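User: Hey, quick favor. My workstation is busy. Could you predict this chain's structure for me?
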Amino acid sequence: MNFLKIFCDSFIDNWDRPAITSYTQRLTLTYGGLGARIERVDRLLEMLNVPLGTHVAVVGNNSIDWITNYMAVMLYGAVVVTTQVTYNDEDLLEMLAAADVEILFIDPELMPKYTDWSDVPSLRLVISQDTQTVLTCRSDAYVNPQFILDSVDQNFVNMFPSGFMPSDVAVPDVRPDTPAAIFFTAGTLGPSRPVVLTNDNMEGNVIYGMKAALFPRGSRTLTSSSVGNVWGTIFNVVVPLASGAHVTVFNDYYSPLSLVAALRRVRPRRVIMSPRQLREVYQVVKDRYESSTVYRLVKLLPFNHRLIDAGMRHAFDRATGGHCSEVVIGSTNVDRRLKARLHRVGIRFTVSYGMVECGGLVCYTPEGDFNPDTVGHPIGSVVKCRLRPIEIPGLPDEAGVLEIRGMTMMKGYYNDPEATRESFTQDGWYSTRDLATINSAGEVSVIGRLDTIISRPGGTIVPERLEATLISTGGVRQAMIVDRDGLTTAIIVPDESIIGDGMETAVRDIIDHVNGMIPRFAHIDDIEISTTPLDVTLKGTIARYKYL
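Assistant: No problem, here it is.
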């Protein structure tokens, strides 16, 4: 099957339906309008004589232009490379160089950061995200590219004198095993690696998303996360557009209040959030609800717990637009107490599990069947999971290292055959190096990372769980648990509520409180306080390798 034809069918079948809206600009494009914009970019690539398979990067903030360029490069048959803009200049340049990017679409406001592109020897051409200006040309292969750029609109009119019509939608014929995209790993335990996903890898995620009706035709969704990472790109853009859904690009300044306002206005059917976003949205809703007259009256009633929970559930439902079937948390790093509160109140959510090497999704179970103690089932017939037995004191006997295989599994890390070979078992399974269990129903529970656990007499510390507990207590913006010469040490970044003269005392009080909740072997022995935020990865987790 030609993977790209999925989008031909979607654009033709939904031609007059809304496809994409800019939240701040209040601009909406139909599928036909978006298709015309995509075709214009493809005309540009063709006029520049860009060969199929060329590595073309799209880097920028959430916008209609970003989505247009990403979809255009993919549907042209080039290899589309992307990453978030949260990295510093040096890291981003290293990523572009590692992926052998030849052409770059980038937000013009990011350009002043880059005065010298010599660190990316493969780069030939840099074009503004709005495709109006050539920002840099470093190759004789492109003669007067600005003239070509200025000629695109007239070329488009000449090719489609009656306007761009459904019958004009076309894509090249691509083989399933040819590279389609390069995403970068999060970089939690080491520098980010470029992951090559083929057309059939991409197709596996898209087909699953369509069959599972994650974004039914005509439904609304909101890009609450960055479209530069694999999750945001595949499940906030690619799958919805393949399904005929209406995508609203959340490109406002982020705050919990602004996100709640966007959710209420857009009224999405399904929304993907990070654990931090969910926690912040829940807190906004909780504060508003507990300050209401209704809440104060209900508090006066005896045996009021069910009524309070029902009120909170109704308040959360209204805050997310009243049409949200579920919130999908795209991370396993969710505080267990928050999950328990959400489940008790009856808020519809599900925790999924994924990775770049699988194009995003590995495990997911819809809200109606979701077990909050797990991350769901391996997705349909697309992915299979198994455990490699391992004996670690303090972990469940049934725990093992999670290994996966399936249609969406990458063919390898770009230009790194050794790392690729080391990541797969001899019989072809990919080792995630995540510690997990699989119950009798086939549901996966992720315990932590094999590479981060800390062994102590009496048991094993799973840093991710302890970090989530610290953050959930309040007063902690970031937390990282490390082993410093045999001492279990917490690197703490306080939040604004405790920064000041009594900050160190407040942090120690938090540590004492958490130590009182956990077994003695897991106690935090020492503290390192930082008022500077710790560097984070593409998915928002701490880049641990920088602090070990």
